[in-house]
Design brief:
six-stranded antiparallel β-barrel, Thrombin, subunit H, Pdz3 Domain, six-stranded antiparallel barrel, single chain, mainly beta, globular, about 10% helix
């Protein structure tokens, strides 16, 4: 059996901040509190078996995990923290964000759901805890800090499907094969991300201190849609882009240069032109075309965004109202 390679309706949420309390985190207490909501997922596909992780998000038995964990699944079974083994069914998958929701076929009396926090107020240096099943070692807890935010990460599933692009949370907590789909907690025991991938060297396939998690605000958006509809919609701008730099007022900035504006899209309606370099979105700097794609996918249909663009050496601000398109599974 191979471990997976780490490469709303009824959702339990909170209005609490995701900022940690001052002082050293009481990780033993946090681990004891959240462990019952973390599960191991065994996946049977046409090519064999794989293992991943997941987290229970409501009392109906819905579990969030990664799309690449359950992609191509013919059979799923979930091992709860207390050792119960329960069959599960895929509710919906979203390759675009590498997220999926599965559901327990039967609900145990002692089911515990995790509480979802927010990723909007996370800070670099904040302590976090990853819980999962690396290499099949269930309920493994590792801790670290947030190393960076809004890190563009592109990855493909094990079947070579479409690449996902997410502005991820970068952490140095140890994440290894089998951690995929497991939760990232803050020191208050709130889920702030879903562990999705790791960076490796050519000599190693394990943890080197570069792990990435999908921000929980995006997770909540996609999970709610998957539970309701089985599919997810994603905001889009309607441009093709490439990485570029542009200079205005003597300052050179990185961004995404517009190569083509698709007709009838939010970009066209906002007056974006070919050759424009988009260097910011709602106050966030755009590092690359992938970075902009990751930002846009965090929004919903109807959301208005302010785009900072450089055109012919001049900095301009335009407002675009995003719409969505359906991504088929």
């Amino acid at each position: 059996m191979n471990s997976d390679q780490a490469t709303a309706v009824g959702i339990t949420q909170t209005t609490q901040t995701s900022q940690p309390a001052t002082g050293d985190p009481a990780w033993a207490e946090v681990a004891a509190k959240v462990a019952p909501a973390v599960v191991a997922i065994q996946v049977l596909t046409n090519s064999g078996e794989a293992l991943g992780s997941g987290v229970v998000i409501d009392g109906s038995g819905h579990i969030v995990t990664n799309n690449h964990v359950v992609a191509g699944a013919r059979k799923l079974q979930v091992t709860m923290a207390d050792g119960q083994i329960i069959p599960a069914t895929v509710v919906g998958t979203d390759p675009t964000t590498d997220l999926a929701v599965i559901k327990l076929d039967s609900i145990p009396d002692n089911l515990v759901a995790a509480t979802l926090g927010t990723s909007a107020d996370l800070t670099v240096g904040q302590p976090v805890m990853a819980v999962g099943n690396p290499l099949g070692l269930d309920s493994t807890v590792t801790t670290g800090i947030i190393s960076a935010l809004d890190r563009p990460v592109s990855a493909s599933d094990r079947q070579g499907g479409q690449p996902t692009i997410t502005n991820a949370i970068q952490v140095d907590a140890a994440i290894n094969p089998g951690n995929s789909g497991g939760p990232l907690f803050n020191s208050a025991g709130l889920v702030v991300g879903i562990n999705s991938s790791i960076a490796t060297t050519s000599q190693s396939s394990g943890n080197i201190g570069l792990g990435f998690a999908i921000p929980v605000d995006l997770v909540k958006n996609i999970a709610e849609q998957l539970i309701e509809n089985g599919v997810a919609q994603h905001a889009f701008l309607g441009v093709s882009m490439k990485d570029a730099t542009a200079t205005a007022g003597g300052v050179t900035r990185t961004g995404a240069q517009v190569l083509q504006v698709q007709p009838g899209t939010p970009a066209e309606q906002a007056g974006i032109q070919e050759g424009d370099v988009i260097v910011g979105i709602d106050g966030h700097s755009v590092a690359s075309a992938e970075s902009l794609t990751g930002y846009v996918r965090q929004y919903k249909s109807g959301d208005k965004v302010k785009l900072t663009i450089i055109r012919s050496g001049q900095e301009l601000t335009v407002e675009a109202t995003l719409t969505t398109r359906v991504e088929s599974n």
